[in-house]
C-alpha cells in the first residue's frame, strides 16, 4: 500500500475513504473456521452481534491525504481474521478514534465492559466503521464515526467538546487507527466523573470505566493495545 508502512505514525490533513466492490476470499474460503471462531468468542456473551462492518482493502498516502477503499464484511469474519493471524490477502481495519484530552493535559480513555469482544482493554472511544458511516455519495465518514462513538460510549454531547480538524494515522499490521484530537474544557477528574455519571444511566454501556493517563509510564498499568501506547508515546514525546 503506497506510503502506508507498518510501524509509522503519519500526520494527515485529510482522510478520503470510499466503499468499493471487493471480493474477500478469506471470508468465503474459510467460512467453517469463521463459524467455529465466532462460536468460541461469542460464547457466554449473548449481546455480541454479528453485524456488517467496513474493512479497508486499499490505501495510499499522498501529500498528507490518506486515500482508502472499504468493503463490507461480517464482524464474525473480521474477528476470525484477527484471531487466525491476519491471513492474506492484506486488508486492514481502518477505524477512527476520538483522542479525548482534558483541560489539564491528561488523556481520557475507556475500559471495555466484560460483555464486549475486547473486555478489559483500554483505549479511546472508537468503533470499526459500518454502513451507518456511509454517506449518500459512497464516502465513509470517519470523522462522524469518531464523534458518534465518543458520544455513544461516554455520554458526552458534541457541544461539550472541541473536535480538531487534524488526524494522525497510527499504522500497524492489520490496522490503521485514525486519531482525531478532541478536547473537553474540564480537568481530568471532573471529566471522568461526568462521563461515569452518564455511563451509569445507559441501559447497555460499552464501557466499565474511564481511565486517566497523564504520562507514558502510566500506560503500563493498563491492558492497552500496542498501537495506543505508540500513539501516546508519540504525543508525549512531541511535547517533552
UniProtKB/TrEMBL annotation:
It comes from the Bacteria. InterPro entries: NUDIX_hydrolase-like_dom_sf. The keyword Hydrolase applies. It comes from Bosea rubneri. Gene3D superfamilies: Nucleoside Triphosphate Pyrophosphohydrolase. This is NUDIX hydrolase. GO terms for molecular function: hydrolase activity. Keywords: Hydrolase.
Amino acid at each position: 500500500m503506497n506510503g502506508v508502512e507498518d510501524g509509522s505514525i503519519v500526520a494527515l490533513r485529510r482522510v478520503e475513504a470510499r466503499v468499493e466492490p471487493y471480493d474477500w476470499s478469506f471470508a468465503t474460503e474459510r467460512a467453517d473456521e469463521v463459524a467455529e471462531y465466532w462460536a468460541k468468542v461469542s460464547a457466554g456473551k449473548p449481546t455480541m452481534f454479528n453485524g456488517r462492518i467496513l474493512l479497508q482493502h486499499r490505501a495510499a498516502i499522498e501529500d498528507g491525504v490518506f486515500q482508502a477503499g472499504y468493503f463490507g464484511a461480517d464482524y464474525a469474519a473480521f474477528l476470525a481474521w484477527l484471531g487466525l493471524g491476519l491471513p492474506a490477502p492484506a486488508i486492514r481495519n481502518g477505524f477512527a478514534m476520538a483522542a479525548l484530552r482534558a483541560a489539564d493535559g491528561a488523556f481520557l480513555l475507556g475500559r471495555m465492559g466484560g460483555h464486549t469482544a475486547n473486555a478489559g482493554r483500554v483505549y479511546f472511544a472508537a468503533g470499526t466503521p459500518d454502513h451507518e458511516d456511509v454517506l449518500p455519495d459512497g464516502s465513509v465518514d470517519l470523522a462522524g464515526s469518531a464523534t458518534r462513538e465518543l458520544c455513544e460510549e461516554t455520554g458526552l454531547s458534541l457541544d461539550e467538546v472541541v473536535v480538531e480538524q487534524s488526524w494522525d494515522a497510527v499504522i500497524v499490521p492489520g490496522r490503521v487507527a485514525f486519531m482525531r484530537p478532541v478536547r473537553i474544557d474540564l480537568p481530568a477528574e471532573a471529566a471522568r466523573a461526568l462521563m461515569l455519571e452518564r455511563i451509569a444511566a445507559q441501559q447497555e454501556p460499552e464501557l466499565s470505566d474511564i481511565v486517566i493517563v497523564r504520562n507514558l509510564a502510566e500506560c503500563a498499568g493498563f491492558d492497552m493495545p500496542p498501537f495506543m501506547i505508540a500513539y501516546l508515546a508519540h504525543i508525549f514525546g512531541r511535547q517533552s
